Backbone:
């Protein structure tokens, strides 16, 4: 059978399906983005309708553009390129179809549940638990289909694009599962198993690496295939691919805590997050350099080929955002920029510039090849590029200006630094209002560019016959000496040095005196040995790596070990520390049942998307919001609500700052209380009754998770809620406002009024 | 820190690697050394930073730093308003420099409720001997700083700062005599509208 | 050995072992070199002089971050106006797009501070001390000696000196020259953060101009790349006329084109490329190769312009189209942007007004009144003291205002925050209503307004309470 020539037809049908889904969901996701950006300017655009308010649509926007737009784009690119890079048709047509339809079903479910307010209350992880299960299932389908295809490959060695795909599949599975661990209280609601600081750490380990392994590594893989194809140039450097791939996947995982700088997160984690973020600059730029210098030889084609234009710009924006990222991770820069629009601008430089432009370049390149017909209009594609670039320019410039302006104003003090210059948060918000409008215009232009692509897509594909790629190969068995055993994988010098370096490094970082000394000695010895061996052994190590590339499973295992290290070292100590001992000097009092009901309303309405609950260890924060937040003050919060953006002020200590009637009027019409506010109105909270019947199940789960509730019967829970609610309603009436005690607003007020109440811990050794 | 496996040097004559993937070839160029140095540099920075903060504990924690800064602010506040006892507030109330500064603040900020004559209108009379929230200088100071939210008296501390508040209290006290009797008033009854 | 001949596969400035060959571009003379030098010296003079020129009592450009006041050519902006910076950023961006569509990377060659300072300050210093390209290379390769050491120390000292001057003037844009002088005169510890900024900034400039040079343009700078993507066939670029030049050959060679393969264009290139290979990533449009080639052509009595500013269309023998949909679109967008910016600037008032509700209860009900309390913040952006008048528009009958009744004096560039207390008699309160807070100057030249809502208790509740009170009264009598 060896040597027989056969023709393979690639499964390009599923690629076309994913491509179509990319285009459609891209338009939907960006449209929602423009709508919510407009809502920040014109609160009327919330239409006083629950499922159209900012707090519910913002998760829809982020989930749609990440998982629906980039997700589908990634699957299209991965499936198209992998088949060709390994010279094999996708292993299973059934799994491919299941993957496609399953993913679209998930997206539809998300698009229905998120506006309904069904959410887990964690950013980019909002989808409720039944959908989480579906995501995991479909991801496994993807993984099986992918690795099965690799197993059937006719190309013995794995190309760099495949390395990135492998790291994506492995890491996203790990991140997604850990951050979605929850215990259901009903079919549509669950509480995450982690709380407070643990939940924060896990969330941003996930959130940051969703950027890394969903928006970056698969797209880098796609770059390594489509960019040299479009440029018709060799890749600049294989060696650079090796160095930047391994350093990127290893270092990225550690950087999550930079989302929590200057918060109550333990200092050692903040220091790790900051230093590893700085370390990330070079590996990221390695990818940019490789892309750019590959394009270099085709620079003269840039004038005429829209695909190359998109790639050149995408690689440039990748470089800009990965330079800005480490910069923003420096504690003092972060103190100014965090919670402001600067971060939003940073993210969009990456997503619009890198993801969006890579997607556009890939689509324009693929269309003629998948439908065997020239692109309908190159001029329109060029116009798309111009409009998109202008859109990004407006958007990013607006967000920089806005973020820096607001950051400076929020931190400004007078009277020798003892008084805030702008004590009223609204002064700072109203200053940046014009910028928010510019951002809508920028986003709108970018969306208009996307619609040009949609039209170009439609005109190209209309009436064209889909065509599947084929290749002729010699059907031969792989060379027998190519197998690398597990021992050969793990007991090779590069792997051993890597394990030793991480091990010794950790001993030095965390060990007590003796262990630490041993760690530093070991690490230095390891370094010296490795560098001493480079001249004589580098050829052999290179040979070993070439051999590793012939073995998908050992390669995947090494990737897994590289990405798992950072997570383990950061998360395990944080989770293992006994909760009650790890609270600093204040500990939270568990919520009453009514407050818990109010908290779930707070989460349902997405309040955390505009309001943080974390007063940082920074003087301006303390002057504005009160004493800085302690670990113990959110220790029972499932999920944590520290937030990541302050479109409105921090709420960590808002309790008892205002009378109940203030909150009532404010939720009914924020502008009545705060002239110039851009917060949506929440009239339905005054009309809808809260659902008390779910509370016993919720409190049961909270107890299970370790929140110190007594053994309450359902009746006790109902009575307690009723009593507290009536008290609030009575107080409201005294202040001149009618509201029935069973309305949602009453529960929400009870929650808001409890924020910041905590008990001092007298003796740290005696747990409560 | 992590020794990266190095592939063999390419053949001198052929800069392209022998393999081609779906037509894609690869050069094997060296990385610019200055780029590598930034990578090594950031690793060295990490080690130094970790040593400074986490091993040698030379660097302070966030909480320590902010507590120090707050202490400095507190000291500045005290230095600019070294008057948190009754005696010095009384002394200030006899010093025209403070009283004039206090009058300026009072006449822009307080008159809308307490009137220019301090006889009260929306807010209570400040020249009689009746006090609702305490009539000792430090008590007045506290009332102005923290406010009485339920009655509509806002906390002026964050807006005016301690210096201006102490001057204003001095101005109010300049209408009083040290040692005069203080009577407790339950609530302020505004005069009937004119 | 001379640097390897540039080609499409390798970056000239990265050697096979990863090290960086330092380039020694040869001198050029000619119209572009002269024009660029004059123009750049003007730009540098402009940059250096701005902090010294005073308009309306402030330096022409003074971004006073500490006081959050921004003085631009006589115009003073407060923190609340900083969003206008957006127009500066996008205006620069748009102009760059427009200019690039017409003239290619003309920004890089003629206006970018990196090129301007590098070519016309640092390279001049180097030229004066180390000599021309051949001498520089020879010196570089020479073994260490007293003479070499002296030249190196002199050169790098001058680099650092110039870097420090640029950095200090940069700081002057933010703290003004007298303040810089105060800081310079004091011990470094007295202004520790400013000193550290200065040291770091000087170091960065020295590293960049002394060593990093073209690497910044090739690897770091995003604008160069975006500009390349914004060029089309009709944009002006520096290019080599292949039709006329090829095939290359020494003078007198049968059938040879105009190019005599003298390699002069490569020797003068500061980024190490061969322009004859077409448009490349590295080209910053510095015009050195144009002057070098023109020089050679003139000496050979051949027409100039074998390498010249022209569009790809023109190099292909057709006429450049200046009016294309793109340039028209950019022109229109630029006009729109300029109009919006002009309009936005015209909305700048000599003052700012903010009205916020005083913290605490949204309204207070007393025996006779419903009361709302606001804080009014007025910022005077003028350089002299000013007075403002406050008015309430669309306020219903019976609304009583206390506070802010007379003229409100505000110091030059000062702010006042004062309470505005409003009372509505209970009997006249019929539910929440909107009204407008307006301030004007005494002459009525300008006004600013904010809409505010007056709140109160549920009217039914208010009436109920009154009924009760009345009954109470009646039963007592």
Residues:
């Amino acid at each position: 059978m060896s040597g027989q020539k056969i023709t393979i037809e690639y499964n390009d049908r599923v690629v076309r399906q994913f491509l179509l889904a990319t285009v459609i969901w891209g338009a939907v996701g960006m449209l929602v983005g423009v709508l919510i950006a407009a809502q920040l300017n014109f609160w009327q655009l919330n239409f006083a309708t629950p499922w159209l308010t900012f707090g519910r649509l913002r998760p829809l926007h982020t989930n749609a553009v990440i998982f629906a737009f980039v997700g589908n784009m990634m699957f299209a690119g991965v499936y198209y390129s992998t088949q060709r890079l390994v010279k094999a048709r996708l292993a299973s047509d059934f799994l491919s179809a299941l993957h496609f339809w399953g993913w679209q079903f998930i997206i539809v479910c998300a698009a229905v549940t998120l506006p309904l307010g069904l959410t887990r209350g964690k950013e980019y992880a909002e989808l409720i638990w039944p959908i989480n299960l579906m995501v995991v299932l479909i991801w496994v389908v993807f993984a099986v289909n992918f690795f099965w295809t690799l197993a059937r490959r006719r190309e013995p060695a794995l190309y760099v694009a495949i390395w990135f795909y492998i790291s994506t599949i492995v890491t996203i599975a790990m991140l997604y599962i850990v951050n979605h661990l929850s215990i259901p209280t009903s079919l549509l609601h669950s509480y995450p198993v982690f709380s407070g600081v643990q939940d924060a750490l896990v969330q941003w380990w996930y959130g940051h690496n969703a950027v890394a392994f969903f928006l970056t590594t698969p797209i880098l893989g796609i770059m390594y295939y489509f960019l040299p194809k479009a440029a018709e140039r060799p890749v600049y450097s294989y060696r650079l691919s090796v160095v930047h791939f391994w350093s990127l996947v290893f270092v990225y995982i550690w950087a999550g805590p930079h989302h929590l700088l200057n918060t109550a997160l333990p200092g050692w984690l903040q220091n790790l997050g900051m230093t590893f973020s700085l370390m990330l600059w070079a590996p990221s730029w390695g990818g940019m350099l490789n892309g750019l210098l590959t394009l270099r030889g085709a620079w003269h084609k840039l004038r005429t080929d829209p695909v190359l234009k998109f790639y050149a710009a995408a690689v440039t924006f990748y470089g800009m955002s990965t330079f800005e990222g480490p910069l923003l991770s420096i504690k003092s820069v972060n103190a100014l920029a965090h919670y402001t629009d600067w971060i939003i601008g940073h993210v969009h430089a990456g997503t619009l510039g890198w993801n969006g432009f890579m997607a556009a370049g890939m689509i324009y390149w693929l269309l003629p090849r998948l439908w065997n017909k020239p692109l309908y209009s190159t001029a329109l594609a060029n116009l798309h590029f111009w409009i998109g670039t202008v859109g990004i320019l407006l958007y990013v410039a607006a967000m920089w200006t806005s973020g820096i302006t607001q950051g400076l104003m929020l931190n400004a003090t007078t009277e020798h630094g003892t008084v805030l210059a702008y004590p009223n948060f609204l002064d700072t918000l109203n200053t940046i209002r014009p910028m928010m409008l510019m951002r809508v215009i920028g986003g709108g232009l970018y969306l208009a560019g996307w619609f040009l692509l949609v039209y170009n897509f439609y005109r190209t594909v209309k009436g064209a016959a889909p065509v599947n790629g084929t290749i002729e190969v010699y059907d031969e068995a792989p060379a027998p000496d190519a197998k690398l055993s597990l021992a050969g994988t793990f007991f090779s010098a590069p792997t051993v040095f890597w394990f030793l370096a991480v091990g010794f490094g950790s001993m030095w970082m965390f060990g007590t005196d003796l262990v630490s000394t041993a760690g530093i000695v070991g690490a230095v010895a390891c370094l010296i040995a490795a560098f001493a061996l480079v001249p004589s052994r580098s050829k052999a190590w290179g040979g070993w790596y070439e051999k590793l590339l012939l073995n998908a499973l050992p390669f995947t295992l090494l990737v897994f070990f590289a990405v798992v290290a950072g997570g383990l070292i950061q998360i395990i100590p944080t989770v293992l520390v006994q909760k009650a001992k790890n609270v600093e000097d204040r500990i939270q009092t568990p919520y009453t049942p009514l407050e818990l009901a109010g908290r779930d309303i707070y989460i349902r309405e997405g309040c955390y998307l505009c309001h943080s609950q974390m007063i940082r260890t920074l003087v301006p924060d303390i002057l504005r919001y009160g004493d800085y937040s302690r670990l113990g003050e959110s220790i029972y919060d499932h999920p944590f609500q520290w937030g990541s953006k302050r479109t409105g002020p921090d709420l960590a200590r808002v309790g008892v700052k205002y009378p109940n009637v203030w909150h009532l009027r404010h939720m009914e019409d924020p502008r009545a209380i705060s002239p110039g506010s851009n917060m949506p109105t929440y009239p339905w909270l005054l009309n809808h009754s809260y659902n008390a019947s779910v509370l016993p199940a919720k409190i049961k789960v909270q107890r299970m998770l370790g929140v110190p509730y007594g053994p309450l019967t359902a009746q006790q829970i109902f009575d307690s809620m009723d009593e507290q609610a009536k008290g609030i309603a009575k107080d409201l009436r005294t202040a001149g406002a009618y509201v029935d005690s069973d309305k949602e607003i009453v529960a929400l007020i009870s929650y808001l009024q409890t924020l910041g109440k905590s008990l001092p811990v007298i003796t740290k050794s005696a747990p409560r | 820190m992590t020794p990266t496996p190095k592939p063999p040097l390419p053949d001198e004559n052929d800069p392209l690697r022998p393999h081609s993937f779906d037509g894609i070839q690869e050069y094997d160029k060296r990385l610019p050394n200055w780029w590598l140095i930034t990578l090594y540099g950031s690793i060295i920075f990490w080690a130094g930073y970790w040593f400074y903060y986490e091993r040698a504990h030379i660097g302070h924690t966030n909480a320590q730093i902010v507590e120090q800064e707050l202490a400095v602010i507190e000291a500045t506040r005290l230095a600019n308003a070294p008057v948190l006892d009754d005696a010095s507030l009384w002394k200030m109330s006899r010093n025209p420099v403070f009283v004039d500064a206090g009058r300026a603040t009072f006449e822009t900020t307080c008159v809308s409720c307490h009137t220019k004559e301090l006889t009260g209108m929306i807010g209570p009379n400040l020249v009689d001997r009746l006090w609702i929230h305490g009539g000792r200088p430090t008590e007045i100071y506290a009332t102005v700083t923290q406010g009485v939210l339920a009655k509509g008296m806002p906390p002026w501390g964050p807006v005016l700062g301690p210096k201006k508040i102490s001057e204003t209290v001095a101005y109010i006290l300049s209408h009083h005599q040290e040692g005069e009797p203080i009577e407790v008033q339950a609530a302020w009854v505004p005069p009937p509208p004119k | 050995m001379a640097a390897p001949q540039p080609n499409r596969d390798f970056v000239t400035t990265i050697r096979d072992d990863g090290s960086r060959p330092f380039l020694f571009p040869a001198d050029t003379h000619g119209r572009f070199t002269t024009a660029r030098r004059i123009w750049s010296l003007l730009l540098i003079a402009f940059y250096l002089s701005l902090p010294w020129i005073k308009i309306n009592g402030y330096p022409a450009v003074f971004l006073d971050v500490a006081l959050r006041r921004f003085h631009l050519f006589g115009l003073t902006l407060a923190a609340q106006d900083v969003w206008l910076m957006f127009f500066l950023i996008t205006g620069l961006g748009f102009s760059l797009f427009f200019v690039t569509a017409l003239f290619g990377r003309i920004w890089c060659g003629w206006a970018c501070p990196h090129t301007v300072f590098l070519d016309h300050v640092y390279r001049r210093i180097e030229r004066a001390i180390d000599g021309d390209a051949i001498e520089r290379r020879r010196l570089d390769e020479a073994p260490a000696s007293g003479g070499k050491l002296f030249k190196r120390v002199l050169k790098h000292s001058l680099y650092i000196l110039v870097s420090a001057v640029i950095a200090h003037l940069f700081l002057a844009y933010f703290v003004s020259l007298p303040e810089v002088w105060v800081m310079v005169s004091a011990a470094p510890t007295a202004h520790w953060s400013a000193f550290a900024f200065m040291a770091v900034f000087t170091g960065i400039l020295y590293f960049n101009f002394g060593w990093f040079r073209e690497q910044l343009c090739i690897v770091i700078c995003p604008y160069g790349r975006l500009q390349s993507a914004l060029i089309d066939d009709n944009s002006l670029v520096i290019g080599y006329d292949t039709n006329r030049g090829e095939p290359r050959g020494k003078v007198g060679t049968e059938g040879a084109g105009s190019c005599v393969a003298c390699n002069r264009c490569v020797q003068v290139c500061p980024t190490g490329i061969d322009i004859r290979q077409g448009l490349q990533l590295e080209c910053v449009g510095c015009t050195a190769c144009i002057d070098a080639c023109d020089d050679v052509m003139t000496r050979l009595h051949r027409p100039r312009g074998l390498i010249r500013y022209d569009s790809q269309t023109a190099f292909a023998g057709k006429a450049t189209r200046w009016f294309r949909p793109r340039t028209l679109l950019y022109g229109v967008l630029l006009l729109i942007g300029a109009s919006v910016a002009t309009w936005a600037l015209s909305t700048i008032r000599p003052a700012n007004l903010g009205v916020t509700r005083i913290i605490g209860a949204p309204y207070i009900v007393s025996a006779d009144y419903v009361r709302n309390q606001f804080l009014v913040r007025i910022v005077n952006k003028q350089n002299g003291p000013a007075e403002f008048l406050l008015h309430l528009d669309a306020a219903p009958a019976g609304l009583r205002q206390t506070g802010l009744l007379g003229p409100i004096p505000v110091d030059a560039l000062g702010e006042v925050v004062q309470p505005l207390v409003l009372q509505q008699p209970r009997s006249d309160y019929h539910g929440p209503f909107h009204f407008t807070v307006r301030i004007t100057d005494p002459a009525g030249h300008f006004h600013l307004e904010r809409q505010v809502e007056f709140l109160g208790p549920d009217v039914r509740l208010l009436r109920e309470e009154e009924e009760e009170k009345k009954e109470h009264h009646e039963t007592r009598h």
Notes: DSSP finds 16 helices and 16 strands in chain C. Chain C has two domains: 1-141+213-348, 351-476. Chain C has a mean pLDDT of 88.
